[in-house]
Design brief:
The protein is an alpha/beta fold. The chain is built from six helices and four strands. The mean pLDDT is about 90.
């Protein structure tokens, strides 16, 4: 089976539990989107609040900490074509950056597990890389349904 994720640590210690969660979730995302056989992968950087704030400011001109950032490499129509026609080149689908401290805080705030929150950040970032967004209500409904489908298939519920 092709590995579809590369995990980078920036400002935090390596953690096999994080890696297990991330790999499980991203593989399910690739499977659901009929991309398992493609030579695409995602780079996921796990970091601290100061680093994600710096990136948020640099790339989005928002000078505050956030939980997750996504940097897609393709437009949605390009991804649709890649899936339809196949893609035989090793390439990055995009980059996701996640603040682990923020994941911990939000898990407590929302009353669910760390696993659920980290899984959600991965799924949410993945669908941004796939060209989905949640700015308009109608787009949000589509994106949320895809996110929920992945988490439900993995039995990662909100209040676990």
């Amino acid at each position: 089976m092709k590995q579809h994720v590369e995990i980078i640590y920036d400002g935090i210690e390596e953690n096999k539990d994080y890696e297990n969660i991330i790999n499980k979730v991203i593989e399910k995302c690739f499977e659901n989107e009929k991309m398992s056989e493609l030579k695409l992968y995602i780079s996921i950087t796990l970091t601290c609040p100061s680093k994600i704030k710096e990136l948020n400011n640099k790339y989005r001109n928002i000078d505050k900490e956030t939980d997750v950032l996504s940097f897609p490499m393709f437009e949605k129509n390009e991804i649709d074509k890649i899936i339809q026609e196949g893609y035989d080149i090793d390439d990055v689908l995009g980059d996701i950056v996640i603040s682990i401290q923020r994941v911990r805080q939000q898990a407590v705030e929302y009353g669910h597990s760390f696993e659920r929150e980290l899984s959600y950040m991965c799924v949410h970032g993945f669908y941004h890389l796939m060209g989905y967004d949640h700015i308009q209500d109608e787009d949000k409904v589509v994106m949320r349904a895809k996110e929920d489908e992945i988490l439900n298939q993995l039995n990662i519920t909100r209040f676990k």
